[in-house]
Amino acid sequence: MKYFTMEECIHSKVAREKGIDNTPSPEIEAHITESVESLLDPLREAWEACSRKQGWGTPAIRISSGYRCRELNRAVGGSVTSAHRYGYAFDLIPLNGRMREFKAFCREFLKGRAFDQLISENENDQGLPQWMHVGCRHPDGKQQRGQLLSLVNGRYLPMICFSGDFSLSL
Ligand SMILES: [Zn+2]
């Protein structure tokens, strides 16, 4: 856990407001640690190198939603089978506001790596998501399907790549 703390991975404004105890079990803490160390930390490190090279400003990444206990997941309208419930999924937002670049970066970064799902969530008609969902493992704890998806108007589609998207060499 180099770039992300356990606190950031379990923090939830909604949980706080609604008085939901979002404390993970030791088993789920282990999932969170595995996810951060195998995927989120390396992603954050590569994003920093990329941001420096491109002159994009702060490489900080905010986790807008990480672990969600059953009650919290219900409160935010998450899918019943969401990997967030198991500490395997995280919604990420780059603090420099470069969402288009971050989307392309995540896709490039995950090429050839073990992961379950990358979802560009709630895309607008310009292909810009509100956040990028990175799922390290399926809730079964085993599968890493390597899916690239876009969530548009509540429907999952193969990830839409716009011709204007530049390709990054990482
Ligand atoms: Zn998510």
From TrEMBL:
It holds the Pfam family Peptidase_M15_3. InterPro entries: Peptidase_M15A_C, Zn_M74/Hedgehog-like. It comes from the Bacteria. Residues 2-108 form the Peptidase M15A C-terminal domain. Gene3D superfamilies: 3.30.1380.10. This is Peptidase M15.
